[in-house]
Design goal:
Layout lengths: L4 E7 L6 H13 L5 E8 L5 H9 L5 E6 L5 H11 L4 E5 L10 H9 L4 E5 L9 E2 L5 H17 L11 E5 H10 L7 H11 L4 E5 L1 E2 L9 H20 L4
Parallel strand pairs: 1-2, 1-4, 2-3, 5-8, 6-9
Antiparallel strand pairs: 4-7, 5-7
Helix pairs in contact: 5-8, 7-8
Amino acid sequence: MSVYLSLIIPAYNEEKRITQTLNRIKEYLLAQNYTYEVMVVVDGATDKTAEVAQNFANDWPNLKIINNKENHGKGFVTRQGILAAQGEIRVFSDADNSTDIKHLEKLLPKFQDGFEVVIGTRDYRDVVGATQAIPQSRFKRLLGDLGNLFIQFLVVPGIWDTQNGFKGFTAEAAQKIFSKAVINRWAFDVEALGLARKFGYKIGLIPVYWENDTQSHVKLSGYINALWETVKIWWGLRTGKYN
């Protein structure tokens, strides 16, 4: 049987949150009339993330678990899941469900409008209606804006929120983009969008209502590394590394 939607969830040490997220996703998808698969890709977790997810999968055949014993980075496991998926549309979403699964109702119709890549944005400067339930701290917002201006200047001009963890791709775009991608950690979103532009795919944006999770794994070092990875992406695009 063909699969319409593949939902990929990269997960690292999500033992405390993954059950709630999977319950919400299951509740939503069971009410839909299309075929789907859900893939939790565990990134070398040191807690019981894989065990909890597998126990959930025992009662839900649409759920698949890929359990990496070593940590490779969010970009690596997201790419791994997308390339292993079977869906006509492939979406990745964060394990904390900070962008609720109901946003699929906005995302999926965009593909029917001719877009090959569709991304959620929390920034009103991208699209009207984008908002955050609990705004990030002023320091994080400042870092985010400065980092994004840098990302726009080098790789993806015109998109203010490149990092929201809710993005979808047609099967063709997913295969072409992620088979060329090499960034394993924080800037993999930037790389995916940069490659989408390089290959001429139309990128659609949808506004999301984003709920900031105070237990986020992102640290200051993550911002710094993402900027350094952005330089690598820029250089790779300029020198033909992705050809």
